[in-house]
Please model this.
Amino acid sequence: RQPDLVPLAVQTGARIIVPTGALLGLDAVRAAAEGTIYSVHMITRKPPEGLFGAPHLLENDININNLSSAKLVFEGTARDAAEAFPANVNVAAALSLAGNGPENTTIEIWADPHVTRNTHTIKVDSDATRFEMFIEGIPSPENPATGLLTPLSVLATLRGLVATMKVGT
Model:
């Protein structure tokens, strides 16, 4: 939690840039936030090995070894998800910042032995639109907690800072 970052950025003239990460559709979420967002909900499913060592699992003695079916390991706000799974759900932070905030974005995290990719299903309901998005990200071989798309998103964000043409918001 860094509640002082935005005021500090305003005071110093700095900008805080949050890459999209492994998400899709943040332009639509940001556009919906120009009106009234009623709800933002994300369901994340990861292979169990992608969640090993997460503070929430260790602190709550949640065993995800040898699962035979999907297990709900977290349900709460994006703010709590970011603290409980700091290496796993950067997508929750980006989604909540684009939408209706970390306290009003709800997250489910599942350890699922039947998935081989990190999946995110996002549902948004607002006064302007209602939509659902789904993405399957290939986990990084070096770090299964994150996907291969995440570093590419960072590169795209950096290139966008100096690009002549910008696509999307």
In short: Residues 19-162 form a domain with the Dihydrodipicolinate Reductase; domain 2 fold (CATH 3.30.360.10). The chain has one domain: 19-162. Helices lie at 5-12, 26-33, 55-59, 78-84, 90-98, 149-162. The radius of gyration is 16 Å.
